[in-house]
Amino acid sequence: MSHEFDLLVIGAGSGGVRCARIAASHGARVAVVESSHWGGTCVNIGCVPKKLMVQASEYGDLVEDSHGFGWSSTRGTHNWATLIAAKDKEISRLNGIYVSMLEKAGITLFTGHARFKDAQSVVIEPSVLAPDATPRTVTAKRIVIATGSTPVKLDIPGADYAITSDDAFYLKERPQRVVLIGSGYIGIEFAGIFAGLGSTVDMVYRQDLPLRGFDEDMRAAMKEAITARGITQHSHASPTKIEKNDTGYAVTLDNGQVLQTDCVFMATGRRPKIDSLGLENAGVQTAKGGRITVNAQQETSQADIYAIGDVTDRINLTPVAIAEGHHLADTLYSKEPPRTWSLDTTPKAVFFSPPMASVGLSEEEAAKNGVLDIYFTRFTPMRHTLSGRKDRKTVMKLVVDQASQKVVGAHILGDDAAEMLQGVAVAVTAGLRKIDFDRTVGIHPTSAEELVTLRTRTRETPKTA
User: Fold this and answer.
1) More confident call, 348 vs 289
2) Confidence band of 163 (pLDDT split at 50, 70, 90)
3) Is the pLDDT of residue 1 over 80?
4) Are 439 and 453 in contact (CB under 8 A)?
5) Which long-range contacts (CB under 8 A, 24 or more apart) does 206-213 make?
6) If I label 110, which of 21, 49, 220, 371 is the partner at 20 to 30 A Cα–Cα?
7) How far apart are CA 323 and CA 415, in angstroms?
8) Mean per-residue pLDDT, 129-153
């Protein structure tokens, strides 16, 4: 059977675009189909606009902090519409860059919703980006599914009144009162955005501490940082219903408390975006929650159909999707051995104010492998000795395997945490030992130098069962 293309990528997000471009650079005939956003979730309704909004939320604090350094400045008021317009302009620019990159690589672009007709044929139908498009069928020898994920809401009465992160980027006005449900990356980041811009924020989550899955010490530090940001936390609580009233909305919690608000924001997880893809027509199997099952080579249950990124629900981070897409394209079309990535030491960051970043294992995870040496420090960074913001702490932690003395985990909460952590991630990936940190000369005066001056072990942690 002849095919129009060697490779068809469904989804023009970060992973799909990287896969398409690398495959094309190896000489493959490549096409990409996108239904809603060139650049995908990260560029349009994810990490890029979110970080711009985080940065916007920090300027008020910087004005106040400047007083301790002798500046006579006034905080003023924030114009939400100006921020959203500036954000939209930047996202539009990035959309154009993604389209230009694909076109310059010689890739054929289709706008519309892709639905499998069979294992090697896809019907492209009208979508929000192309509502008047005439349906057409495209054939390809190989197909990559890179459609990402989409937010989910809790199944409670009144859930339709709640917004998700997809909606938050397009709010016409900033709500004065926000009830935010959830305490993962998205929940914490948007709680910080709204609080920093002047909203009253109530944060509701089921656990004792936010950020389930992170190191326990860092979770506790983040809980303190959230409180210091002026956000009210309702831990060990879940919403049972949302009702609309004359002043906004009433959110009833399972502890009987009722929170009055102007906006209910559900940051309660995401699921793979596979709706209407017609996977059953192609014989592609999914697991619980809609995750497309793949092996180590990103192959699905159907030969010549692959899946990368959040649609596989493994490590749902943009750089991971990019790595998977790059590796897959090299594997399929390069004459050279494919480039590899150390996904086990994928660093991650939560862009709160202050941010938190981690790489490697938490203390709880590492203790399953053996006895640990823990190095921990907590201090007020230099800036805030003059700003007067005494509750803005920096927390650092190194998790060291006692037998090998390898640093198997590093965790930072504090100003510039993510910027510091990227370099540390290289060290952890390289398997460097604590002595390598100790013999490295620090940059003074910085917070980062604490990472190489932590000489005294805080505690020994025994191996757990």
Assistant:
1) 348
2) very high
3) no
4) no
5) 206/235, 206/236, 206/237, 206/238, 207/183, 207/235, 207/236, 208/235, 208/236, 209/235, 210/183, 210/184, 211/183, 211/184, 211/185, 211/350, 211/356, 212/183, 212/184
6) 49
7) 28
8) 96
Residue 2: is its pLDDT beyond 90? no
Please write the tens of the pLDDT for every residue from 340-392. Answer: 999 999 999 999 999 999 999 999 999 999 999 999 999 999 999 999 998 99
Over the chain, what is the mean pLDDT? Answer: 96
- Looking at 67, 236, 327, 444, which residue is catalytic? 444
Kindly give the interhelix angle for 216-228 and 185-196, rounded to the nearest 10 degrees: 20
Contact (CB, 8 A) for 106 and 31: no
Side by side, which strands form the sheet with 348-350? Answer: 348-350, 356-360, 407-413, 394-401, 372-379, 459-461
- List Cβ neighbours of 296 (8 Å cut-off, separation of 6 or more): none
Task: Determine whether 100 is exposed, middle or buried from the number of CB atoms within 10 Å of its CB (0-12, 13-18, 19+).
Answer: exposed
371, two tokens: 């006895």
**For helices 14-25 and 318-333, angle between their N-to-C axes, nearest 10 degrees:** 20
Residue in 124, 53, 46 with CA at minimum distance from that of residue 82: 53
Specify the amino acid at residue 147.
T
Of 326, 300, 296, 297, residue with least CA distance to 311: 300
Smallest Cα–Cα separation from 302: which of 139, 114, 143, 137?
143
Give dist(CA 313, CA 330) in Å, integer: 22
Residue with tokens 């896809």: 122
Q: Answer yes or no: is pLDDT of 338 > 80.
A: yes
Cβ pair 407, 432 in contact under 8 A: yes
C-alpha distance from residue 147 to each of 118, 166, 179, 277 (Å): 18, 15, 30, 9
- 444 assigned to active site: yes
**310 and 17 Cβ atoms separated by less than 8 Å:** no
The DSSP bridge partners found for residue 410 are: 359, 398
pLDDT at residue 313 in the model:
86
- Per-residue pLDDT at 171 exceeds 70: yes
**104-141: b or e for each residue (b if 16 or more CB lie within 10 Å)?**
ebebbebbbbbbbeebbbbbbbebeebeeeeeeebbbb
The pLDDT score that the predictor gives to residue 289 is 86
Distance of CA 145 to the CA centre of its chain: 20
Global pTM reads: 0.96
Pairing, β 149-151 against β 356-360: unpaired
Residues 6+ apart with CB under 8 A from 370: 401, 402, 403, 463
Three-state secondary structure call for residue 144: strand
